[in-house]
Amino acid sequence: MTQKKHRFFIIIFITLVAAGFAYSANSIKPFENRKFFDFPLNVNGWMGEDIPMSEYVYRGIETPYLFLRNYYSARSQVPVNLSIVWFDDTNIAFHAPEACLGGVGERVKEKTSFIAPINDQKTLEMGKLIVGGDKGRKQLVLYYFDVDGYSTISQKEIRLHVLLKRLTFKRSSASFIRLMTPIVTTEQDASDFLLDFVRTVYPLIPEYTYTNKIRS
């Protein structure tokens, strides 16, 4: 009888805790990112220009925190296309990278991942896509997701990481970072070109996307 009572109280306790978590998760309010659009256009010799997007794009992405830019360096007329999408922890609604590209006529020809060296102490797992349109041109796409310093190429891991923070009553936010450039000569040349830009902007991204930076 005593054992049954213990089990009963354990079940009640777990139910109450779960209900408390659910209430907390559903009662929190979204928070703003007032720094997001201050992300610099001029970054260590790279000059950026904003690409206008329609209201339809913002509705599809489900967040106002999105920008799309072309960055150019003095050593090349080939652009690096940078897209950053940001969500707070009340609405993580990322779309698969290949689905977004398919919506603008780019078909995925190859999908892999690799570990990119950022500096002597840091490496970064990045997703890699080779995409192409109807005219035979190909582009290289690199991407990753980031939750306040936890980076991954898995959408499931991003959602799980945000959920775990919510269950410990910590606010968080998540970003999707995508870079793209045409393959003009070889895929390796395009990769080296993109990674040069990644190493330039990577240290800047936390200031405009991490929760502790934008809520301080």
Radius of gyration: 21 Å
- Mean pLDDT score: 87
- How many H/I helices? 7
Main β-sheet description = 9 strands, antiparallel
| N to C succession of SSEs | HEEHEEHEEEEHEHHH
Question: Span from first to last CA?
Answer: 53 Å
Number of strands: 9
Residue stretches low in confidence (pLDDT < 50, at least 5 long) are 16-23
Strand fraction: 25-35%
Characterize the overall form: globular
Provide the helix percentage. 25-40%
Derived structural class? alpha+beta
How many structural domains can be distinguished in the coordinates? 2
Question: What do these coordinates show?
Answer:
This protein is of the alpha+beta class and 216 residues long. The protein folds into two domains: 1-30; 31-214, no CATH class. 35% of the residues lie in helices and 33% in strands. Strands 1, 2, 3, 4, 5, 6, 7, 8 and 9 form a nine-stranded antiparallel sheet that branches. A hairpin with a 5-residue loop joins strand 5 (107-117) and strand 6 (123-132).
